[in-house]
Amino acid sequence: MRRERLRRDPVLYEVYLRSFADSNGDGIGDLAGLTSRLDHLVDLGVDGLWLTPVFRSPQFDFGYDVSDYLDIHVEYGSMPDMDALIDAAHTRGLAVILDVIIGHTSIEHFWFREHPDRYIWADQIPNNWLSVFGGSAWRHDEEAGRYYYHRFYPEQPNLNWGNPEVRRAVHEILGFWTGRGVDGFRLDSLDGIAVDPGLQDEPLADPSALRGRERDPWAQYWSLQHVHTCNLPQVLTELKEIATAFPDAALVVEADLPNEQLLPYMRLADCSFAFDFIRAPLDGVALARVIDGAGLAGRGNLAWALSNHDQPRMVSRWGRDLAGVAAVLLLSLPGWSFIYQGDEIGMVDGPGGPDLRDRSGRDAVRHPMQWNRSGGFTTGTPWLPFIDPEVCNVEDQRGAAGSTLEQYRTLIRLRRELRGPVRIVAAEPGFLAFRRGGHTISLNLGDEDHELGPGQLVYMTGRVEPGRLGPRSAVVQVADPDSTGGQPSER
Ligand code: GLC
Ligand code: CA
Q1: What is the Å distance from ligand 2's center to 22 Cα?
Q2: Mean per-residue pLDDT, 196-206
Q3: Taking a C-beta distance cutoff of 8 angstroms, is the pair 199, 113 a contact?
């Protein structure tokens, strides 16, 4: 039933658990804290939440290094807390999408010692493969006297999906969680679960293929074409196996590939993150290329996000006005739209804390949620400091006309009325307009006024005058019944 609700253009809210709400004063967000704040998601009007990893973990990659998939990490609570969260979410009509990491485990998972054949080994460094976080993807293990492959941190050895035991074990884990009532899974870095068994060198990347990755702290990784470590045919075979074995689970794919390579994933899963979108500049021509035709029947869904726990925040990327325009885009596209916690109040990237927490530089985007003027995230000392709760917090923005929070609420409500695929009406570097059914969405991304066609305004941000849309402004319009002689078309 919940899956049914998620089927058409849902809005999901990404909860970065460690930074959302702390219930016991240790400065670390936890499950009980999240449960106590679920009404914020209800107020916002979202359909569900993407819950970042909750499993037992030594936290080298803050939960993306799992040492036990069937238990809750002690800082985050207990299994009863998790059951209570799922229950409380369902009572409020919210779906829970669990982040699962099936391409690698923690080096502390017992499989690593007791089932070494579930990992990928070589006697010498066999090739030029790189870790996403930099350096060789091979690490020497003293105990085994061999090298193992890790696509991410060395504390995250990759699983060997060439061994059928891995599939069996992973399906068992997924079954455990669907049995506990989760509504679906975000399949973390799915494209990299299978690698070439011949361990061949990867070719150098064509520099033109790297456009948009300039901001990426992982430039070295992208200097190679990952033809032997990503997007191998077996990835789709395994996705199909999962979709078949868990027909009621919603599946959200994370595969960092160009849009045109995502189609097969979109057909098998409910949606697949559009990395071309998150990396695109706010340029009408570039954006039109990424969104044109989205929502066309038979193509499946893209998942849209403009920031997350790995990427800079919207306000820091573009400034407040353009972030407001980008929010209109994010929430008016067909498919799955994701809001990263804090973006709905316009949080900015922070300075990190006195101690470096994430070795690859993502502390800036993981500062705690700002609930009120004194923070409200914890009664203790937050694991990363607050940024600016005095000027940016949920409490002050709730019900305040024109606040970022109210803009998000309005846009989510309006989204329910949008129907049909994206049809581009105008695409220029500083301007983008597209139609969805009877609605026209116009975004002025530039510094000059832009001409605006007729239509009744149902949403606006920035400056709008008859026939003109001000710089860094956006509107949603419906055709005037007078001028068309009928109701806006619905599909
Ligand atoms: C995904 C996560 C990221 C994590 C990586 C390795 O990209 O979003 O946070 O570090 O996978 O699991
Ligand atoms: Ca806590």
Answers
A1: 4
A2: 96
A3: no
